[in-house]
Amino acid sequence: MQERRESVRDKVIYGGVAEIGDRGATRECIVRNISDRGATIEFSNDVQLPKEQLSLRIVRKGRSFLAKVIWWRDNFVGVAFRAESPAESVSDLGERLRRSEIKKRQLQRRIDELLSER
C-alpha cells in the first residue's frame, strides 16, 4: 500500500476525548497514532461523526485539535488536524492547585489537633 501521508505518524496509545456534536456531546476514544498533521483514533464502538469537523482533546499531550474526518472504518477514524486553528493548551495546573490547597487544609487541621492534645 502506498503511503500518502505528508508526515510520519508515531504509534501511541493516548486516552482522548472527542467532541462529536454541535451540542457539546463527547465520546472517549483512544489515539492510536499521531503526527503534527493528523491521527488515527479508535472508539469503543461505532459512532456517528460529523463530516465537517470534530474537536479532539489529548490530555496527556496537553493539547486540543480541531480535526476533519478523512476516513472511518468500523470504530477506527482517521482525522487531519485543521491548520487554521491553533491548538489550545490543556492544563491540569488549576486542578492540581485545588487538590494541593485541600491537602494543605487537612494537614493544618491535623497539626492543630496534635498540638491541642499536648
From TrEMBL:
It comes from the Bacteria. Keywords: Coiled coil. Residues 3-92 form the PilZ domain. It comes from Bradyrhizobium australiense. Residues 90-117 form a coiled coil. Signal peptide: none annotated. Gene3D superfamilies: predicted glycosyltransferase like domains. GO terms for molecular function: cyclic-di-GMP binding. This is PilZ domain-containing protein. The lineage of its organism: Bacteria, Pseudomonadati, Pseudomonadota, Alphaproteobacteria, Hyphomicrobiales.
